[in-house]
Each structure stands twice: as structure tokens, then as C-alpha cells.
Amino acid sequence: MDFELSDDHRLLQRTVRDFALKEVAPVAEELDRHKRFPYEIVSKLGELGLMGIPFPEEYGGGGGDTLAYALAVEELTRVDSSVAITLCAHTSLGTQPIYLFGNEEQKREWLPELCSGRRLGAFGLTEPEAGSDAGNTRTRAVRENGSWVINGAKQFITNAGTEISGVVTITARTGEDEISNFIVPNGTPGYEQGEPYRKMGWNASDTRPLTFTDCRVPEKNMLGPRGAGFKQFLHILDIGRIGVAAMGVGLAQGALDQALAYAKERKAFGQQISKFQAIQAKIADISAEIEAARLLTYKAAIQKDRKESFTLTAAQAKLKTGRLAVRATEEAVQIHGGYGYIEEYPVCRFYRDAKILTIGEGTDEVQQMVIARALGA
Fold first, then answer.
1. Between vectors from CA 233 to CA 159 and to CA 140, what angle results, nearest 5°?
2. Which positions are catalytic?
3. How far is 12 from 303, CA to CA, in rounded Å?
4. What digits encode the pLDDT tens for the residues 57-112?
5. Would you say 115 and 60 are in contact if contact means Cβ atoms under 8 Å apart?
6. What are the φ/ψ torsions at residue 196 (nearest 5 degrees)?
7. What is the C-alpha separation between 266 and 188, in angstroms, rounded?
8. The whole model's pTM is what?
9. Per-residue buried b or exposed e for 303-312, using 16+ beta carbons within 10 Å of the residue's own CB
């Protein structure tokens, strides 16, 4: 059991940390305030090879592993969650289905553009009647004259409506008890992206509803075998939970960074507030929990890279880190006092960004179900 990162992993970690501090931190508050999608940052992430970290070089990817991907997500979230979720959803949800389940023609067509960051990928699973009950998909696809005609709606979809969005993979019912996945390129007639949601957090990321009205795609756009969609998206969600867990670790660490720096600067009653035992207890507790959550998240990534079962560990990591992010950001705001309630201070944004980590990619309650079932309960 080796707790040390390899030289390659440490190099990537430092590279992303430097990028986040130099390129993301100076504009994060402005992007959040104006709800502006970070096109320039995404372009630079693509130039650094970070938009396709875990995919093979033959398809334009970085040739890295899941741990490398988790490290990059963690470091970005340490500074800004909107940028991190853009990369995270693009990689885990948008690109991963095509890589895992696509045929060679589909991979050659889409992966180079996605891995380069020139195009963003999205994943359309959630519907008004199919959130936690993801198998209750109502969107339908009917085979007709060599095409599939899709009708339905998706909601809370990330990365589908930007100027560089390229494709969404969606689930649709192709029979009474049958769900399949389809690749739907942006610009396909009948596929429309609704107005972006007004959200509590992640304001610089793209999240909106999608509608499909007699949307016709060729038969070749089915992703994987007919009827395999349910099994496919469960596997994608398992992978996605590693990325979201890394976001939770990064957000908690970022909150601790800010809280510690502020506590060492702020003086009250003649001394730095970091000298007060009450503040020290908060900092110590959060630090210990972050380290435990980080190890759990890395374990899930390593299990996946070893081709071992990681469903249980990924769900545990996602459950733990989402709750930790909420607690850590709340404590960071508390340590800042009144300034923590002011938008110019990053912890205010961190606090708003944290809550979604207990909801997206499967709510805490769903994670508890997954964990209990994996344990045989």
C-alpha cells in the first residue's frame, strides 16, 4: 500500500494547481457574478491536454488514468467549482459513454474533438419524472425509415447549450421495458436547448433543460447494443461519482485554505483569531476529515484503474465528500464572520457551490441505497 503519488501524478497536480491559481482565481468571482461561461479557460484547459485526461492518446486524449483525472478535478475545484464541473461533466458524462460504448466509427468521429476541448460533451439522463428513479425514463425513440425519431425532455443537463457544445448522449425508451442510448449532435433538427437555469451556485457553468421534438438521428447513432442503456448509464454514474467526490475534496480544501489564511490575518482581542481554541478546533476537524475523504476518493480511482469493482467505494466517497464540502464551507464562512457573507470573499461562493454535491450524480439518499445494497443489506 503506497500513499505517495508518482512523479507524473505530482507533476500534473502542480501544473493544474498553478493554472488554477494564475488563470482561474483572478476571474472566478467575476465569472460567477455575471454568470458567464469560461470559454477562455476551457480553451486553455484543452491546450494543456486536461479535457481528455483519462482517454487514450490515439483518440487525442492525455493517456492518463482515473487518479490523474481526480487530481485535476480536485485542484480546479479548490479554486472554482464552475470550471471544475465543466471539465468533470464533459469528461465523466459527455466523453466517457462514447469511449466506453461507442464503436470505432463513433470514437473516431467524436473523441478527438471532445478530448481537445474544441467541443464539449453532455449526458442527458435526468427527466422531470426520472431523477433519482433514473429507470423511469419517459423520452422515447421510435425506429422509422432507417432512423430513430426521439421525443421527450431532459433537465439539469450540463454543457449542452454553450457555443462549443458538440454532442449529448441521451437515454430513451426503445421498447416497453427497454432503454437505449443515443448520440445527438448539437444542431440536429428537433433538438433544442432551453434557457439556462437560475441557480444557487455553479453560476459560470452551463445547466439547462433539453427538448426533443420529432428529433431524427440515423440508426448508427445508437450507442452500444439496443436495450443496454440502463446498464450503461449505471456504469457511467459510478465513474462520475469519482469525479464529483474529487470536487467535494477540492472544495473542502479550498474552503480550509481560505479560512486558515483569513484566521491568521484577522485580529480580535489583541491577537490573531487563529490563536483561539474555538477556531483551531474547527480548522483541525475539517483538516482531518479532508484527509480521510481524499484517501477514500483516491482509493475509488485506483480501484477503477486496476479494473476492480469500485461501485461501493465511489458511492462512499461521493456521500462523504459532498457532506464534508457543505460542512467545510459553512465553517469557513463562520470563521470569516460577516465577511464570509460578502460575495467578494471566495468562501461565500464556495458555500453556495457546495450544496449541489449532495444532490448531483445521485443524491445522498441514493448513495446510501447503493452502499447498503453493495454490502448485502
1. 80
2. 361
3. 20
4. 999 999 999 999 999 999 999 999 999 999 999 999 999 999 999 999 999 999 99
5. yes
6. -65, 150
7. 55
8. 0.96
9. bbbeeeebbb
